[in-house]
Amino acid sequence: MKAKIIDGKAIAEQMQAELAKKVEKFREEYGDVPGLAVILVGEDPASQVYVRNKEKACADAGIETASYRKPASIPQKELEAFIASLNADPAVDGILLQLPLPEGLDARPCLDAISPEKDVDGLTAVNQGRVAMNVPGLRPCTPAGILALLDHYGICVSGKKAVVIGRSNLVGRPIALMLGSRDYNATVTMCHSRTPDLAAVCREADLIVAALGKPRFVTADMVKPGAVVIDVGINRGEDGKLCGDVDYADVAPIASAITPVPGGIGPMTISQLLVNTAKAWKAKLLS
Description:
Elements: E1 4-5, H1 8-30, E2 35-41, H2 45-61, E3 64-70, H3 76-87, E4 94-97, H4 107-112, H5 125-133, H6 141-152, E5 161-165, H7 172-179, E6 187-191, H8 198-203, E7 207-210, E8 228-231, E9 235-236, E10 242-243, H9 248-251, E11 257-258, H10 265-286
Parallel strand pairs: 1-11, 2-3, 2-4, 5-6, 5-7, 7-8, 8-11
Antiparallel strand pairs: 9-10
Helix pairs in contact: 1-10, 2-10, 6-7, 6-10
C-alpha cells in the first residue's frame, strides 16, 4: 500500500488564488476589501516568522493588514484595552493576536477581549462555544483547514472511528467536536497523556489526527492499515530536522492517506485565516 499524500500546500495555494479573485470583486463592487489587524507582542523569533507568513498571504489575497508590534513589557490591561480599540474600529474586520504571549501575560482574557465577530482565529470562548453547539460562527483555523482537506480529497468520515490525540483549545477539542458533529458524523475518541494503552486505541481508528506536539510520536504500530493520518505537529526532531507528530517514513507505507510536514496542515491554517477574515468582512457588510 502506498499512501496518498494530502497536499495541503497545493490546496492552500488554490484556495488563496480563488479568494484573491473574490476580494478583487469586492473592491470593484463595494470599493472596500477585508481588513485584518495583527498584534505581535514581544520578540519571539518563531512568532515573527509566522506573522510575516500571514501578512504575505494576506497581501497576495488582496486583504489589507495593519500590524501592531507591542513590547513584551506591555501591561495586561493595556493590551486588553488596545484590543478593545480595534473592536471599535470599523476598518478592522478581523483581529489576530499571535500566540504564545510572553511570560507574565494571560492569553485567555486577551483572546476573550476580541469581539467574536472579529475573532478570525476562532479562539474566543464564544466561538469555541459555537463549535460545541454546532451553530454558525468563525471556526478555529487549523481544525477548519483539516476539514477542508478531507472535503477536497473526498475522504468521508461518516460512521467511521476517529481518534484525536491532543486536547488543546487550538486544535484537539474543536476538531473532535467538528468531526463528531452532524455535518461529519464520525465517532470520535479524544486521547491525551492519561489515556491508557493509547496505541491500542489508535489502532482502532479509521482517521487519526495527531496534535500533541511530540516529534514522530505516532509510529506504524499505532496505525491500522488503510487509516487516514492527519499530522498537525510542527517540531524539531533530535536530528534537528523539521518533523511532525507522526513518524512519516514509518507510517506512510501503511496509511491510505497522510499529510506531510511541512506542506500539510500548516498552509491550510493560514488559508482559513484569510477565509475567516473575508467571512467577517461580509458579515459586517450584511449586518
